[in-house]
Amino acid sequence: MATFEYNALTSAGRLMKGTIEAGTHQEASELLKQMQLDVNSVEKAEPKKPKTAIGRNEFLLFNQQLASITKAGIPLERGLRELAGDIQSRSMRKLVNAIADELEAGVSIEQAFEKRQKHFPPLYGRILKAGVETGRLSEMLTSLNRHLEMATQTRRIIFEAMTYPAVILVLASIILTGVFTFIIPQFGAVLSEMTEGAELPGITRVFLSMAQNVVPFWITVGFVIAAIVALYAVLSASASGRRFKESLLLQIPVIGRVYHSSILSRMAEGMAIMVAAGSDMPVSLRLSSGATGSEKLILESEALAGQIEQGANILEAGQFCRMIPRLFLYSIQLGTQRNELQDNLYSLGQMYAEQARCGQARLQAVLLPVMLIGVGGFLAMTIMAMFLPMISIITNLSAT
């Protein structure tokens, strides 16, 4: 069945517009005539874009405002109404008003947000429910905001760490392609005449050969990039593939450490939020690891949670862990024994976040000079290869 938009007149001469579902254009016209409508036009409706989650920045602002309103003691339903009036996005305003309507009608917070899982982050409804029941809604919303800001900061850290080398690599590729396409071939003819048929130095022959194969080289590079993209898509399609991809990432010096620290920071912050929401340890481990997006961490946390449910303490259960450090597990056990678990988890989150920031600083300090040295060294070799025969000729002439 397809959806058709129609424009028609009623028997009283009143204009009517709307949509109707039918198998074909003709069938839609017949159905409208059966409704005693004088059809002006019937056209197939454009498919509606699927609803997606609200933007990260938009949600972050919404959550900050909601935390401020609840901190002021305004009831959640009234707070949502107030927020809806200040939201500029029509879709977001409509969404918030719909949630407020359901809350005023007696629907629970968890159910209201459960219906809109595609729009809000996972567990948001559960967090709000726990906050209302414990009277700590503002505190929990603030904690969630800190967690979201940390996730955004981690993405920015990795993006910034890779941007500068990527820009340099692209610019260097353009410059070197121009050199090998337009400059080096001119040297080839000149050098052949100057050496009068004598054999050129090996490095010179290599660079002249490279200049003759610039186009095939970039075609090969294009195929290699396409193969890497295809392999990336295949690996991303399955959990085992994503774990393999993640294992490769963790092996990269500095970058792997930054990634590891960032996901541990997010997991610690997520567990703190879950503990504040009243979740037990196995649930907190599963949900917070799922929020990191790390397949290896999810797999470890699932096994760890299973052993805890069987009665083992977290240190004994975590003997096999590789992604979750012993310090992480020890801090959790110590916090549980001293009734300071939430504070310990926040401290862990801050510690790993600081490690990620230090790693990002090292990346920016190392990658950029390495790229500059690499590009500069290659250009120096190119110049040497072109001038080496001339130096040899001048040396021979001086000797005679």
Polypeptide structure, described:
- This protein is mainly alpha-helical and 400 residues long.
- The protein has three domains: 2-44; 56-146, Receptor-associated Protein; 150-400, no CATH class.
- Helices cover 75% and strands 6% of the residues.
- It has a three-stranded antiparallel beta sheet.
- Strand 1 (2-9) and strand 2 form a beta hairpin.
- Helix 7 (137-195) packs parallel to helix 16 and helix 11 packs across helix 12 (281-292).
- The longest helix has 59 residues, at 137-195.
- The mean pLDDT is 79.
Give the number of DSSP strands.
3
User: Could you say how many structural domains there are in total?
Assistant: 3
Low-pLDDT stretches are: none
Helix % is: over 70%
Q: In angstroms, what separates the terminal alpha carbons?
A: 93 Å
Strand order, largest beta sheet = 2-1-3
Sheet with the most strands? 3 strands, antiparallel
Pattern of helices and strands: EEHEHHHHHHHHHHHHHHH
Helical/strand content category = mainly alpha
Radius of gyration: 32 Å
Gross morphology is flat
Helical region count? 16
Query: What oligomerization state is this entry in?
Result: single chain
